[in-house]
Specification:
This protein has 6 helices and 7 strands; from the N terminus they run ααβαβαββαβαββ. By secondary structure, it is of the alpha/beta class. It has a single domain, classed as Rossmann fold.
Length: 203
């Protein structure tokens, strides 16, 4: 199978995914984390979110199925003098050995088979500390997956599904919108997105 376009981005030392900028939610949310917070970044890619949060002094575990992405992340952390624990693994197979104050799954869960990501979501919730946070962005099936990504988007969410999954948590922010995106080669697409930031106030 042809590799997704972001693998080329990971191989280019002069290019970073999403321009290397952290998600807006994390820029605001990090202020609410304890000074020694532990963070799990699922599907970290080349580490834009992990690098930002490590720079704030948090303990980061970053996992991804892409060795290219992790190699680039490790190089960046070395250059910046940061420390991030990394693991090259399919997110569905990750073994939780501790609980986290923040778990991020930004643009990755729809790349996992539905039955596997259902289990993973439960593990994510179970392994978030009380008063901890989850930040999750998923693509939905409101529109068909673009042809270049369709082979990888095997777990598209239904509209509102991720909101329902967190109905027992405090919802800080939830958004549903269409992202106008341009893939390498000038390929234009529209991605329907659901995004949440929520807090675990239940036991």
């Amino acid at each position: 199978m042809k590799k997704p376009f972001w693998e080329k981005t990971y191989l280019n030392s002069n290019e970073t995914f999403e321009g290397g900028k952290p998600a807006d939610e994390l820029v605001e949310l990090h202020k609410q984390l304890p000074y020694n917070a532990s963070v799990l970044d699922i599907g970290c890619g080349d580490g834009r979110n992990s690098i930002y949060l490590a720079g704030k002094g948090f303990y980061i575990t970053a996992i991804d199925i892409s060795e290219n992405g992790l190699r680039k992340l490790r190089q960046t952390t070395k250059e910046k003098g940061l420390k991030i624990e990394t693991e090259n693994i399919n997110a569905a197979e990750y073994c939780f050995e501790k609980k986290f104050d923040l778990i991020i799954a930004y643009g990755v869960l729809h790349l996992i088979k539905k039955e596997e990501r259902k289990i993973l979501l439960k593990r994510i919730k179970d392994n978030t500390r009380k008063n901890g946070f989850n930040v999750i962005l998923v693509f939905t099936d409101t529109l068909p997956a673009p042809p270049d990504l369709a082979p990888f988007m095997i777990g598209l969410f239904e509209e509102g599904e991720i909101f329902n999954e967190y109905s027992d948590w405090e919802m800080i922010e939830n958004k549903s919108y269409i992202l106008n995106d341009v893939h390498p080669g000038g390929i234009k697409h529209k991605h329907p997105i659901n995004k949440i930031t929520c807090k675990k106030t239940c036991i």
